[in-house]
Specification:
about 550 residues; alpha/beta; Rossmann fold; GMP Synthetase, Chain A, domain 3; Non-ribosomal Peptide Synthetase Peptidyl Carrier Protein, Chain A; five-stranded mixed sheet; five-stranded antiparallel sheet; about 20% strand; globular; disordered C terminus
Length: about 550
Protein backbone atom coordinates (compact mmCIF):
# COMPACT_ATOMS: atom_id res chain seq x y z
CA UNK A 1 0.00 0.00 0.00
CA UNK A 2 1.38 3.41 -0.98
CA UNK A 3 1.22 6.54 1.18
CA UNK A 4 -1.39 7.98 -1.19
CA UNK A 5 -3.58 4.87 -0.92
CA UNK A 6 -3.23 4.86 2.88
CA UNK A 7 -4.11 8.56 3.08
CA UNK A 8 -7.15 8.25 0.83
CA UNK A 9 -8.70 5.17 2.45
CA UNK A 10 -8.12 6.53 5.99
CA UNK A 11 -9.71 9.85 4.87
CA UNK A 12 -12.76 7.95 3.63
CA UNK A 13 -13.04 5.98 6.87
CA UNK A 14 -12.57 9.20 8.86
CA UNK A 15 -15.39 10.85 6.92
CA UNK A 16 -17.52 7.72 7.46
CA UNK A 17 -16.98 7.93 11.24
CA UNK A 18 -17.93 11.61 11.31
CA UNK A 19 -21.02 11.36 9.10
CA UNK A 20 -22.46 8.05 10.26
CA UNK A 21 -21.62 8.29 13.97
CA UNK A 22 -20.95 11.98 14.48
CA UNK A 23 -17.51 11.35 16.02
CA UNK A 24 -16.14 14.51 17.60
CA UNK A 25 -12.94 15.46 19.50
CA UNK A 26 -12.43 13.60 22.81
CA UNK A 27 -14.99 10.91 21.93
CA UNK A 28 -13.65 7.37 22.26
CA UNK A 29 -13.64 4.91 19.38
CA UNK A 30 -12.57 1.32 20.02
CA UNK A 31 -10.68 -0.85 17.53
CA UNK A 32 -11.01 -4.64 17.89
CA UNK A 33 -9.50 -6.31 14.83
CA UNK A 34 -7.19 -9.13 13.87
CA UNK A 35 -3.74 -7.95 12.80
CA UNK A 36 -3.89 -6.38 9.34
CA UNK A 37 -3.44 -3.07 7.53
CA UNK A 38 -6.92 -2.15 8.81
CA UNK A 39 -5.50 -1.60 12.30
CA UNK A 40 -3.31 1.21 10.97
CA UNK A 41 -6.05 2.56 8.67
CA UNK A 42 -8.51 2.65 11.60
CA UNK A 43 -6.00 4.39 13.87
CA UNK A 44 -5.39 7.12 11.28
CA UNK A 45 -9.11 7.46 10.49
CA UNK A 46 -10.02 7.94 14.16
CA UNK A 47 -7.37 10.63 14.63
CA UNK A 48 -8.44 12.34 11.40
CA UNK A 49 -12.09 12.34 12.51
CA UNK A 50 -11.05 13.99 15.77
CA UNK A 51 -11.85 10.92 17.88
CA UNK A 52 -9.77 9.12 20.50
CA UNK A 53 -8.21 5.77 19.53
CA UNK A 54 -8.89 2.92 22.00
CA UNK A 55 -7.17 -0.32 20.94
CA UNK A 56 -8.74 -3.55 22.23
CA UNK A 57 -6.96 -6.88 21.85
CA UNK A 58 -9.30 -9.34 20.16
CA UNK A 59 -7.73 -12.13 22.25
CA UNK A 60 -8.73 -10.53 25.57
CA UNK A 61 -11.39 -12.34 27.64
CA UNK A 62 -14.90 -11.00 26.97
CA UNK A 63 -15.12 -9.68 30.52
CA UNK A 64 -12.04 -7.50 30.03
CA UNK A 65 -13.21 -6.30 26.61
CA UNK A 66 -16.60 -5.37 28.05
CA UNK A 67 -14.95 -3.46 30.90
CA UNK A 68 -12.77 -1.40 28.51
CA UNK A 69 -15.74 -0.53 26.28
CA UNK A 70 -17.93 0.39 29.25
CA UNK A 71 -15.24 2.28 31.20
CA UNK A 72 -14.25 4.38 28.18
CA UNK A 73 -17.86 4.82 27.02
CA UNK A 74 -16.84 4.06 23.44
CA UNK A 75 -19.07 5.73 20.87
CA UNK A 76 -18.50 2.70 18.66
CA UNK A 77 -16.08 -0.20 18.23
CA UNK A 78 -14.51 -0.78 14.84
CA UNK A 79 -14.54 -4.55 14.34
CA UNK A 80 -14.61 -6.78 11.24
CA UNK A 81 -18.36 -6.18 10.80
CA UNK A 82 -17.86 -2.41 10.87
CA UNK A 83 -15.05 -2.64 8.30
CA UNK A 84 -17.35 -4.75 6.10
CA UNK A 85 -20.10 -2.12 6.35
CA UNK A 86 -17.65 0.65 5.47
CA UNK A 87 -16.23 -1.26 2.50
CA UNK A 88 -19.72 -1.86 1.14
CA UNK A 89 -20.39 1.91 0.98
CA UNK A 90 -16.82 3.24 0.66
CA UNK A 91 -17.57 4.93 -2.67
CA UNK A 92 -20.04 7.23 -0.96
CA UNK A 93 -17.30 8.93 1.05
CA UNK A 94 -14.76 11.43 -0.24
CA UNK A 95 -11.06 10.63 -0.22
CA UNK A 96 -10.52 14.27 0.80
CA UNK A 97 -10.84 14.67 4.55
CA UNK A 98 -13.49 16.96 5.96
CA UNK A 99 -11.94 19.38 8.43
CA UNK A 100 -11.59 18.14 12.01
CA UNK A 101 -11.86 20.48 14.98
CA UNK A 102 -9.26 18.77 17.21
CA UNK A 103 -6.37 20.69 18.77
CA UNK A 104 -3.07 19.74 20.51
CA UNK A 105 -4.71 19.52 23.95
CA UNK A 106 -7.39 17.06 22.80
CA UNK A 107 -6.94 13.36 23.51
CA UNK A 108 -5.29 11.22 20.84
CA UNK A 109 -5.51 7.76 22.35
CA UNK A 110 -6.43 5.78 25.46
CA UNK A 111 -4.32 2.76 26.44
CA UNK A 112 -5.42 0.34 29.13
CA UNK A 113 -2.67 -1.03 31.39
CA UNK A 114 -2.76 -3.48 34.28
CA UNK A 115 -4.30 -2.08 37.48
CA UNK A 116 -3.84 -3.24 41.06
CA UNK A 117 -7.60 -3.11 41.81
CA UNK A 118 -8.45 -6.09 39.59
CA UNK A 119 -9.39 -4.01 36.54
CA UNK A 120 -7.15 -2.30 33.96
CA UNK A 121 -6.76 1.48 34.07
CA UNK A 122 -7.04 3.79 31.06
CA UNK A 123 -4.13 6.17 30.43
CA UNK A 124 -5.27 9.23 28.44
CA UNK A 125 -2.68 10.77 26.07
CA UNK A 126 -3.08 14.12 24.29
CA UNK A 127 -1.99 14.93 20.73
CA UNK A 128 0.76 17.34 21.83
CA UNK A 129 2.26 14.75 24.18
CA UNK A 130 2.57 11.91 21.66
CA UNK A 131 3.70 14.32 18.91
CA UNK A 132 6.60 15.35 21.15
CA UNK A 133 7.60 11.72 21.66
CA UNK A 134 7.40 10.72 17.99
CA UNK A 135 9.34 13.75 16.70
CA UNK A 136 12.00 13.27 19.39
CA UNK A 137 12.39 9.58 18.55
CA UNK A 138 12.67 10.28 14.82
CA UNK A 139 15.48 12.74 15.52
CA UNK A 140 17.36 10.45 17.93
CA UNK A 141 16.94 7.34 15.75
CA UNK A 142 18.05 9.34 12.72
CA UNK A 143 15.07 8.09 10.70
CA UNK A 144 14.83 9.27 7.13
CA UNK A 145 12.68 8.08 4.25
CA UNK A 146 14.73 4.91 3.77
CA UNK A 147 13.74 2.89 6.84
CA UNK A 148 12.26 -0.54 6.23
CA UNK A 149 10.79 -1.28 9.62
CA UNK A 150 8.93 -4.04 11.44
CA UNK A 151 5.69 -3.56 13.31
CA UNK A 152 5.82 -6.30 15.95
CA UNK A 153 4.04 -5.06 19.08
CA UNK A 154 0.42 -5.87 19.83
CA UNK A 155 -1.86 -3.01 18.80
CA UNK A 156 -3.24 -2.94 22.36
CA UNK A 157 0.13 -1.66 23.63
CA UNK A 158 1.48 1.83 23.12
CA UNK A 159 4.75 0.51 21.69
CA UNK A 160 2.81 -0.12 18.48
CA UNK A 161 2.06 3.61 18.18
CA UNK A 162 5.77 4.37 18.32
CA UNK A 163 6.52 1.67 15.73
CA UNK A 164 3.88 3.04 13.37
CA UNK A 165 4.47 6.77 13.59
CA UNK A 166 8.27 6.88 13.83
CA UNK A 167 8.20 5.22 10.39
CA UNK A 168 5.15 6.80 8.73
CA UNK A 169 6.03 10.30 9.96
CA UNK A 170 9.53 9.98 8.47
CA UNK A 171 8.55 8.47 5.11
CA UNK A 172 9.71 4.92 5.76
CA UNK A 173 8.31 1.54 4.77
CA UNK A 174 6.31 -0.27 7.47
CA UNK A 175 6.02 -4.06 7.50
CA UNK A 176 3.12 -5.42 9.57
CA UNK A 177 4.12 -8.84 10.83
CA UNK A 178 1.47 -11.54 11.26
CA UNK A 179 1.03 -13.28 14.62
CA UNK A 180 2.13 -16.56 13.04
CA UNK A 181 5.39 -15.05 11.76
CA UNK A 182 6.04 -13.24 15.03
CA UNK A 183 5.83 -16.50 16.96
CA UNK A 184 8.31 -18.33 14.75
CA UNK A 185 11.76 -16.84 15.36
CA UNK A 186 13.34 -18.61 12.41
CA UNK A 187 10.70 -17.32 9.99
CA UNK A 188 11.06 -13.82 11.41
CA UNK A 189 14.84 -13.98 10.98
CA UNK A 190 14.32 -15.03 7.35
CA UNK A 191 11.80 -12.23 6.81
CA UNK A 192 14.23 -9.61 8.15
CA UNK A 193 16.92 -10.85 5.78
CA UNK A 194 14.72 -11.35 2.70
CA UNK A 195 13.03 -7.93 2.99
CA UNK A 196 16.20 -6.07 3.96
CA UNK A 197 14.61 -4.82 7.20
CA UNK A 198 16.95 -2.27 8.77
CA UNK A 199 14.95 -0.91 11.73
CA UNK A 200 13.02 -2.80 14.43
CA UNK A 201 11.90 -2.62 18.04
CA UNK A 202 12.38 -6.00 19.74
CA UNK A 203 11.59 -6.69 23.38
CA UNK A 204 14.49 -8.08 25.47
CA UNK A 205 12.63 -11.35 26.20
CA UNK A 206 12.14 -11.98 22.48
CA UNK A 207 15.67 -10.84 21.64
CA UNK A 208 17.04 -13.67 23.80
CA UNK A 209 15.34 -16.20 21.50
CA UNK A 210 16.64 -14.73 18.23
CA UNK A 211 19.90 -15.84 16.58
CA UNK A 212 21.60 -12.47 16.33
CA UNK A 213 23.87 -13.49 13.46
CA UNK A 214 20.69 -14.02 11.40
CA UNK A 215 19.59 -10.39 11.89
CA UNK A 216 23.03 -8.80 11.55
CA UNK A 217 21.83 -6.65 8.64
CA UNK A 218 19.45 -4.87 11.01
CA UNK A 219 21.13 -1.45 11.20
CA UNK A 220 19.00 -0.02 14.02
CA UNK A 221 17.69 -2.04 16.94
CA UNK A 222 15.44 -0.53 19.62
CA UNK A 223 15.07 -2.45 22.89
CA UNK A 224 12.25 -1.42 25.20
CA UNK A 225 9.70 -2.73 27.67
CA UNK A 226 12.17 -4.49 29.99
CA UNK A 227 15.78 -4.20 31.11
CA UNK A 228 17.96 -4.64 28.01
CA UNK A 229 20.05 -7.86 28.00
CA UNK A 230 23.70 -6.75 28.09
CA UNK A 231 25.28 -9.77 26.41
CA UNK A 232 22.79 -9.81 23.54
CA UNK A 233 23.27 -6.08 22.98
CA UNK A 234 27.06 -6.47 22.96
CA UNK A 235 26.86 -9.30 20.44
CA UNK A 236 24.49 -7.32 18.21
CA UNK A 237 26.89 -4.37 18.22
CA UNK A 238 29.72 -6.55 16.85
CA UNK A 239 27.82 -6.67 13.55
CA UNK A 240 28.07 -2.89 13.17
CA UNK A 241 24.53 -1.88 14.05
CA UNK A 242 23.31 0.82 16.44
CA UNK A 243 21.22 -0.05 19.49
CA UNK A 244 18.79 2.33 21.20
CA UNK A 245 17.65 1.36 24.69
CA UNK A 246 14.37 3.21 25.26
CA UNK A 247 12.59 3.73 28.55
CA UNK A 248 9.23 5.22 29.44
CA UNK A 249 5.96 4.21 31.09
CA UNK A 250 2.70 4.55 29.18
CA UNK A 251 2.01 7.63 31.33
CA UNK A 252 4.91 9.46 29.65
CA UNK A 253 3.63 8.90 26.10
CA UNK A 254 5.68 5.75 25.49
CA UNK A 255 9.20 7.12 25.90
CA UNK A 256 11.00 9.44 28.35
CA UNK A 257 14.67 8.53 27.87
CA UNK A 258 16.85 6.84 25.22
CA UNK A 259 20.41 5.51 25.37
CA UNK A 260 22.20 5.27 22.01
CA UNK A 261 24.96 2.66 21.70
CA UNK A 262 26.97 2.34 18.53
CA UNK A 263 30.00 0.46 19.83
CA UNK A 264 31.00 -1.96 22.58
CA UNK A 265 33.30 0.57 24.27
CA UNK A 266 30.44 2.32 26.02
CA UNK A 267 29.28 -0.93 27.65
CA UNK A 268 32.58 -2.55 28.63
CA UNK A 269 32.55 -1.21 32.17
CA UNK A 270 28.81 -1.61 32.78
CA UNK A 271 26.81 -4.51 34.14
CA UNK A 272 23.56 -3.00 32.82
CA UNK A 273 22.54 -1.10 29.71
CA UNK A 274 21.63 2.45 30.85
CA UNK A 275 18.21 3.86 29.99
CA UNK A 276 19.96 7.01 28.83
CA UNK A 277 19.10 10.68 28.63
CA UNK A 278 15.77 12.55 28.52
CA UNK A 279 14.19 13.10 25.12
CA UNK A 280 13.24 16.62 23.97
CA UNK A 281 11.13 18.76 26.31
CA UNK A 282 11.44 16.18 29.09
CA UNK A 283 13.09 16.34 32.51
CA UNK A 284 14.06 13.46 34.80
CA UNK A 285 14.36 13.75 38.58
CA UNK A 286 15.73 11.07 40.90
CA UNK A 287 14.31 11.68 44.35
CA UNK A 288 14.52 10.11 47.79
CA UNK A 289 11.61 9.11 50.00
CA UNK A 290 11.29 12.73 51.12
CA UNK A 291 11.02 13.84 47.46
CA UNK A 292 14.41 15.57 47.69
CA UNK A 293 16.97 15.49 44.88
CA UNK A 294 19.59 12.74 45.20
CA UNK A 295 23.27 13.01 44.18
CA UNK A 296 25.05 10.99 41.46
CA UNK A 297 25.19 7.27 42.25
CA UNK A 298 22.38 7.31 44.83
CA UNK A 299 19.38 5.11 44.01
CA UNK A 300 15.97 6.76 44.21
CA UNK A 301 12.61 6.88 42.47
CA UNK A 302 12.49 8.17 38.89
CA UNK A 303 10.10 11.10 38.35
CA UNK A 304 9.29 12.49 34.90
CA UNK A 305 8.06 15.93 33.87
CA UNK A 306 7.60 17.65 30.55
CA UNK A 307 5.59 17.68 27.35
CA UNK A 308 4.93 13.94 27.22
CA UNK A 309 2.98 13.48 30.44
CA UNK A 310 -0.45 11.88 30.18
CA UNK A 311 -3.57 13.81 31.06
CA UNK A 312 -4.15 11.19 33.75
CA UNK A 313 -6.23 8.06 34.34
CA UNK A 314 -9.70 8.03 32.83
CA UNK A 315 -12.48 8.15 35.45
CA UNK A 316 -9.92 7.81 38.25
CA UNK A 317 -9.13 11.25 39.72
CA UNK A 318 -7.83 9.77 42.98
CA UNK A 319 -5.10 7.72 41.30
CA UNK A 320 -4.33 10.60 38.92
CA UNK A 321 -3.77 12.85 41.96
CA UNK A 322 -1.53 10.22 43.59
CA UNK A 323 0.70 9.62 40.58
CA UNK A 324 0.77 13.05 38.91
CA UNK A 325 1.95 15.41 41.65
CA UNK A 326 2.81 19.11 41.61
CA UNK A 327 6.43 19.67 40.60
CA UNK A 328 8.22 21.26 43.60
CA UNK A 329 11.05 22.36 41.30
CA UNK A 330 8.96 24.10 38.61
CA UNK A 331 5.80 25.98 39.43
CA UNK A 332 2.76 25.04 37.38
CA UNK A 333 4.23 21.74 36.13
CA UNK A 334 3.43 18.14 37.07
CA UNK A 335 5.71 15.25 38.00
CA UNK A 336 4.82 11.65 37.25
CA UNK A 337 5.85 9.16 39.98
CA UNK A 338 7.01 6.17 37.92
CA UNK A 339 7.63 3.75 40.78
CA UNK A 340 10.84 2.83 38.94
CA UNK A 341 14.18 3.11 40.72
CA UNK A 342 17.31 4.50 39.11
CA UNK A 343 20.52 6.44 39.59
CA UNK A 344 22.55 9.03 37.74
CA UNK A 345 25.79 7.78 36.17
CA UNK A 346 28.95 9.87 35.86
CA UNK A 347 28.24 10.60 32.18
CA UNK A 348 24.80 12.03 32.99
CA UNK A 349 22.89 8.97 31.81
CA UNK A 350 20.44 7.07 34.02
CA UNK A 351 20.66 3.43 35.04
CA UNK A 352 17.49 1.51 35.86
CA UNK A 353 17.56 -0.24 39.27
CA UNK A 354 14.21 -2.01 39.65
CA UNK A 355 10.83 -1.16 41.19
CA UNK A 356 9.63 0.08 44.56
CA UNK A 357 6.24 -1.70 44.31
CA UNK A 358 4.58 -4.81 42.86
CA UNK A 359 4.45 -3.66 39.25
CA UNK A 360 6.62 -5.85 37.01
CA UNK A 361 7.50 -6.34 33.36
CA UNK A 362 7.02 -9.93 32.21
CA UNK A 363 7.85 -10.86 28.60
CA UNK A 364 7.65 -7.15 27.78
CA UNK A 365 4.17 -6.72 29.29
CA UNK A 366 3.48 -4.36 32.18
CA UNK A 367 1.70 -6.24 34.96
CA UNK A 368 0.42 -5.28 38.39
CA UNK A 369 0.81 -8.41 40.53
CA UNK A 370 -2.00 -7.06 42.71
CA UNK A 371 -4.45 -7.33 39.80
CA UNK A 372 -3.68 -11.05 39.37
CA UNK A 373 -3.95 -11.62 43.13
CA UNK A 374 -7.29 -9.81 43.30
CA UNK A 375 -8.77 -11.92 40.51
CA UNK A 376 -7.45 -15.20 41.97
CA UNK A 377 -9.10 -14.35 45.31
CA UNK A 378 -12.43 -14.00 43.51
CA UNK A 379 -12.43 -17.80 43.03
CA UNK A 380 -14.79 -19.33 45.60
CA UNK A 381 -12.27 -21.94 46.73
CA UNK A 382 -9.40 -19.49 47.38
CA UNK A 383 -8.85 -18.02 50.82
CA UNK A 384 -5.68 -16.08 50.01
CA UNK A 385 -3.19 -15.72 47.17
CA UNK A 386 0.14 -14.09 46.44
CA UNK A 387 1.88 -13.80 43.06
CA UNK A 388 5.65 -13.52 42.70
CA UNK A 389 8.07 -13.29 39.78
CA UNK A 390 10.97 -15.62 39.05
CA UNK A 391 13.50 -15.84 36.22
CA UNK A 392 14.05 -19.04 34.27
CA UNK A 393 17.40 -20.26 32.96
CA UNK A 394 17.04 -18.09 29.83
CA UNK A 395 16.60 -14.98 31.98
CA UNK A 396 12.92 -14.71 30.99
CA UNK A 397 10.62 -13.63 33.81
CA UNK A 398 7.45 -15.55 34.64
CA UNK A 399 4.80 -15.29 37.34
CA UNK A 400 4.09 -17.91 40.02
CA UNK A 401 0.85 -17.98 42.03
CA UNK A 402 0.84 -19.41 45.55
CA UNK A 403 -2.58 -19.89 47.10
CA UNK A 404 -4.32 -21.14 50.22
CA UNK A 405 -7.66 -22.92 49.82
CA UNK A 406 -10.65 -22.19 52.04
CA UNK A 407 -11.43 -24.91 54.63
CA UNK A 408 -13.02 -28.08 53.17
CA UNK A 409 -12.80 -26.71 49.61
CA UNK A 410 -11.62 -28.88 46.76
CA UNK A 411 -10.08 -27.26 43.68
CA UNK A 412 -7.13 -28.01 41.42
CA UNK A 413 -4.79 -25.75 39.47
CA UNK A 414 -6.54 -26.52 36.16
CA UNK A 415 -9.81 -25.22 37.59
CA UNK A 416 -8.16 -22.04 38.91
CA UNK A 417 -6.34 -21.46 35.62
CA UNK A 418 -9.57 -21.84 33.62
CA UNK A 419 -11.22 -19.36 35.99
CA UNK A 420 -8.45 -16.80 35.30
CA UNK A 421 -8.58 -17.36 31.54
CA UNK A 422 -12.10 -15.91 31.54
CA UNK A 423 -10.89 -12.75 33.25
CA UNK A 424 -7.25 -12.01 32.36
CA UNK A 425 -5.16 -11.79 29.16
CA UNK A 426 -2.90 -14.77 28.41
CA UNK A 427 0.26 -12.91 29.40
CA UNK A 428 -1.14 -12.30 32.92
CA UNK A 429 -1.93 -15.97 33.64
CA UNK A 430 0.73 -17.32 36.05
CA UNK A 431 2.98 -20.03 34.66
CA UNK A 432 2.80 -22.02 37.90
CA UNK A 433 0.12 -22.51 40.56
CA UNK A 434 1.20 -23.92 43.92
CA UNK A 435 -1.15 -24.74 46.80
CA UNK A 436 0.10 -24.20 50.36
CA UNK A 437 -1.48 -24.75 53.77
CA UNK A 438 -0.18 -21.34 54.84
CA UNK A 439 2.24 -18.68 53.65
CA UNK A 440 5.69 -18.31 55.25
CA UNK A 441 6.02 -15.05 57.18
CA UNK A 442 8.89 -12.70 57.98
CA UNK A 443 9.66 -11.63 61.56
CA UNK A 444 7.41 -8.58 61.15
CA UNK A 445 4.47 -10.69 59.99
CA UNK A 446 4.60 -10.04 56.23
CA UNK A 447 4.53 -12.78 53.58
CA UNK A 448 8.11 -13.94 52.97
CA UNK A 449 8.34 -13.89 49.17
CA UNK A 450 12.00 -14.97 49.18
CA UNK A 451 11.03 -18.21 50.93
CA UNK A 452 8.20 -18.73 48.46
CA UNK A 453 10.69 -18.60 45.59
CA UNK A 454 12.77 -21.27 47.35
CA UNK A 455 9.78 -23.63 47.50
CA UNK A 456 10.79 -27.01 46.05
CA UNK A 457 7.35 -27.32 44.44
CA UNK A 458 8.53 -24.90 41.72
CA UNK A 459 10.38 -27.75 39.98
CA UNK A 460 7.92 -30.54 40.75
CA UNK A 461 5.43 -31.83 38.20
CA UNK A 462 2.08 -32.40 39.89
CA UNK A 463 0.64 -34.48 37.06
CA UNK A 464 -1.82 -36.95 38.59
CA UNK A 465 -1.67 -39.41 35.68
CA UNK A 466 2.01 -40.00 35.02
CA UNK A 467 2.74 -42.26 32.09
CA UNK A 468 6.40 -42.70 31.16
CA UNK A 469 7.66 -42.03 27.60
CA UNK A 470 7.40 -45.14 25.42
CA UNK A 471 9.82 -44.54 22.54
CA UNK A 472 12.86 -42.48 21.57
CA UNK A 473 10.94 -39.44 20.28
CA UNK A 474 8.79 -39.23 23.43
CA UNK A 475 11.85 -39.67 25.67
CA UNK A 476 13.84 -36.95 23.89
CA UNK A 477 10.84 -34.61 23.86
CA UNK A 478 10.21 -35.21 27.58
CA UNK A 479 13.85 -34.32 28.33
CA UNK A 480 13.47 -31.16 26.22
CA UNK A 481 10.29 -30.14 28.07
CA UNK A 482 12.03 -30.71 31.42
CA UNK A 483 14.83 -28.39 30.30
CA UNK A 484 12.59 -25.67 28.84
CA UNK A 485 10.00 -25.74 31.65
CA UNK A 486 12.48 -26.55 34.43
CA UNK A 487 10.26 -29.28 35.89
CA UNK A 488 10.88 -32.92 36.82
CA UNK A 489 9.52 -36.15 35.39
CA UNK A 490 7.43 -35.15 32.39
CA UNK A 491 5.06 -37.84 31.17
CA UNK A 492 3.29 -38.39 27.85
CA UNK A 493 -0.08 -37.23 29.22
CA UNK A 494 1.27 -33.89 30.48
CA UNK A 495 0.08 -30.68 28.85
CA UNK A 496 2.82 -28.17 27.99
CA UNK A 497 0.70 -25.18 28.99
CA UNK A 498 -0.53 -26.72 32.25
CA UNK A 499 2.93 -27.40 33.68
CA UNK A 500 4.50 -23.98 33.10
CA UNK A 501 4.46 -23.32 29.37
CA UNK A 502 3.39 -20.05 27.74
CA UNK A 503 3.54 -18.53 24.27
CA UNK A 504 7.15 -17.30 24.54
CA UNK A 505 8.39 -20.68 25.80
CA UNK A 506 6.40 -22.33 23.01
CA UNK A 507 8.26 -20.10 20.53
CA UNK A 508 11.57 -21.23 22.03
CA UNK A 509 10.39 -24.86 21.99
CA UNK A 510 9.72 -24.68 18.24
CA UNK A 511 13.34 -23.67 17.63
CA UNK A 512 14.66 -26.45 19.86
CA UNK A 513 12.43 -29.09 18.23
CA UNK A 514 13.78 -28.17 14.81
CA UNK A 515 17.36 -28.51 16.11
CA UNK A 516 16.82 -31.74 18.08
CA UNK A 517 14.45 -33.59 15.71
CA UNK A 518 14.93 -31.89 12.32
CA UNK A 519 11.18 -31.31 12.37
CA UNK A 520 9.38 -28.02 11.87
CA UNK A 521 6.25 -27.35 13.91
CA UNK A 522 4.37 -24.05 14.03
CA UNK A 523 2.76 -22.41 17.04
CA UNK A 524 -0.71 -23.61 16.05
CA UNK A 525 0.57 -27.21 16.13
CA UNK A 526 2.03 -26.64 19.60
CA UNK A 527 -1.26 -25.23 20.95
CA UNK A 528 -3.43 -27.87 19.24
CA UNK A 529 -1.16 -30.74 20.31
CA UNK A 530 -0.19 -29.57 23.77
CA UNK A 531 0.24 -32.99 25.39
CA UNK A 532 3.62 -34.66 25.02
CA UNK A 533 1.98 -37.65 23.35
CA UNK A 534 0.26 -35.52 20.70
CA UNK A 535 3.28 -33.30 20.13
CA UNK A 536 5.55 -36.31 19.67
CA UNK A 537 3.06 -37.59 17.09
CA UNK A 538 3.31 -34.30 15.17
CA UNK A 539 7.11 -34.52 15.25
CA UNK A 540 7.00 -38.05 13.80
CA UNK A 541 4.71 -36.85 11.00
CA UNK A 542 7.06 -33.96 10.21
CA UNK A 543 10.06 -36.31 10.17
CA UNK A 544 8.22 -38.63 7.79
CA UNK A 545 7.45 -35.72 5.44
CA UNK A 546 11.12 -34.67 5.54
CA UNK A 547 12.19 -38.22 4.69
CA UNK A 548 9.77 -38.34 1.71
CA UNK A 549 11.05 -34.99 0.45
CA UNK A 550 14.64 -36.26 0.67
CA UNK A 551 13.79 -39.42 -1.29
CA UNK A 552 11.96 -37.37 -3.93
CA UNK A 553 14.88 -34.93 -4.25
CA UNK A 554 17.35 -37.79 -4.64
CA UNK A 555 15.21 -39.39 -7.35
CA UNK A 556 15.01 -36.15 -9.32
CA UNK A 557 18.79 -35.79 -9.28
CA UNK A 558 19.46 -39.21 -10.87
CA UNK A 559 20.79 -39.02 -14.45
CA UNK A 560 19.49 -41.63 -16.84
Amino acid sequence: MTYQELDEVSNKLGNYLKKKYGVKPNEFVGVKLNRSEWNVISLLAILKSGGVYVPIDIAYPEERIDYIIENSDCKLVIDSDEIYDFRSMEKLYSSVLDTADSNPDDLAYLIYTSGSTGNPKGVAIQHAAIANTILSQIEIFGNENKERALQLASFSFDASISEIFTVLASGGELHLITDELKKDTEELENYIEEHAINFATISPSYLKLVQLDKIKNLKKLVTAGEAAPVEEVKKYLTYGGTCFNAYGPTETSICATIYKIDGNDSLQEQANVPIGFPIANTKIYILGTDEKLLPFGAIGEIYVSGAGLAQGYLNNPEMTHQKFINNPFAEGEKLYKTGDLGKWLANGAIEYAGRNDDQVKVRGFRIELGEIETVIKQHEAIEDAVVVVKEDSLGIKETVAFFVLTPDSVSDTDDIKEFLEDKLPEYMIPSHFISLKEFPLTLNGKIDKKKLLQNKSLTENFSRNYLAPRDEVESKLAALWEEVLEVDQVGVLDDFFKIGGHSLKATYLITRIKTEFNAKLDLISIFNNATLEAMAGEIKKAQLVNAEVTISDDFENISI
